[in-house]
Write a structure and sequence with these properties.
The complex is a heterodimer of chains A (182) and B (166). Chain A is an alpha/beta fold. Helices cover 23% and strands 18% of the residues of chain A. In chain A, helix 2 runs parallel beside helix 3. Chain A is extended and about 95 Å long.
């Protein structure tokens, strides 16, 4: 076979990056608009510190999370609640209306919380049979975590505990962080 | 087959400028939005399954118990005055003021060791006033957990107690 002469026949090869850049920008815009940065289950709050707290490495999927967070309308500040630079509590806020009970980003009043827990407690594994033949609720083994701000007051936690007790939910964990150096 | 001569072929060049632009955009985007997950901890606080609804009142202090009283006091650290109260059926109750959480932990551990030595089942009750900060309550729980106490209860006062009686 003879040699093929290709002199002068090759086209100039080049990469046109413009469509790729277009696509990438489209993707960026799409993700920026659709991404949900907020983890609805976990409100941003300062957990109380406890040296004996256990790392929450494998949280059960069906665990319910109740948040007690300090929230004010935009532009308003609370003079009560104070932390130092290391997030150690200096002063708690005892103003009840500054505190919100939230589950999955939705605010609940204590009475509404009870209704929610009654409903949610029956999901997944369901409830144990009631000892009095259905007159009262059976015990729910669904785990539940209460994440409360260190600067909250017991009055609020007491209400959550009461709602849990009435909804017959007993498997309660309290969110806590480890102090620095532990 | 013979070799293909490609003498006059233009050099193939990649223009990286656009790609670098995109990568920088992405880097800035992720640097601004990234949030490192801080692993949180938890304290087990299981409620008793057999008591609570029907028997909602706080056990009478005359019964055998160890009660950690947390009283709101603005002069104290964390606005909390700590008192440890022990009581029994046979003798009168004793109340001790505790200066700090470390001392509380030691005192509670001492009581627990004494209780365990006689194989008694005595609840440790955390009895906070309504305005006591949650950090103090967690400190009290922490003190009990350090002593390996598992039977920790919370005192509930009215109106919650009354509500629970419904």
């Amino acid at each position: 076979m003879g040699r093929i002469k290709t002199e002068g026949m090759m086209e100039k090869v080049g990469f046109d990056m413009t469509p790729m850049i277009d696509c990438v920008f489209q993707l960026i815009i799409f993700f920026m608009l659709t991404i949900d940065f907020a983890n609805k289950q976990m409100e941003r709050l300062t957990l109380p510190k406890a040296t004996t707290s256990v790392e929450d490495k494998t949280p059960p999927e069906q665990r319910l999370m109740i948040n007690l967070s300090h929230e004010l309308p935009p532009g308003k500040n609370c003079e009560e609640l104070k932390y130092d630079n290391n997030n150690n509590l200096l002063k708690a806020c005892a103003i009840e209306k500054h505190w919100k009970i939230k589950v999955n980003g939705v605010e609940y009043q204590p009475s509404e919380l009870e209704a929610l827990l009654v409903k949610e407690g029956g999901k997944f594994e369901g409830r144990e049979p009631s000892p009095d033949g259905g007159k009262t609720l059976g015990i729910s083994n669904r785990p539940l975590m209460i994440r409360c701000d260190a600067g909250g007051i017991y009055q609020l936690l007491e209400k959550i505990f009461a709602a849990c007790a009435r909804a017959r939910m007993w498997k309660i964990e309290i969110g806590a962080s480890r102090p620095a150096g532990n | 087959m013979g070799r293909v001569k490609s003498k006059n072929v233009d050099p193939c060049e990649l223009d990286f400028t656009a790609m670098i632009d995109v990568i920088f955009q992405l880097m800035i985007f992720f640097m601004c939005t990234i949030k490192f997950k801080s692993l949180e901890g938890k304290l087990f606080s299981y409620l008793p399954k057999d008591v609570g609804l029907q028997n909602t009142s706080v056990p009478d202090p005359n019964l055998d118990e160890v009660r950690i009283k947390l009283v709101y006091d603005e002069r104290k650290p964390l606005n909390t005055k700590i008192t440890l109260q022990t009581s029994s059926n046979s003798s009168s109750s004793a109340e001790v003021q505790i200066p700090d959480w470390e001392t509380l932990s030691n005192q509670v551990a001492g009581h627990y060791a004494r209780i365990m030595s006689i194989n008694a089942k005595v609840p440790f009750i955390i009895d906070p006033q309504s305005k006591v900060p949650l950090q103090s309550i967690v400190h009290a729980m922490d003190a009990c957990r350090k002593a390996n106490i598992t039977d920790i209860r919370f005192a509930a006062k009215s109106p919650v107690t009354e509500e629970l009686k419904r």
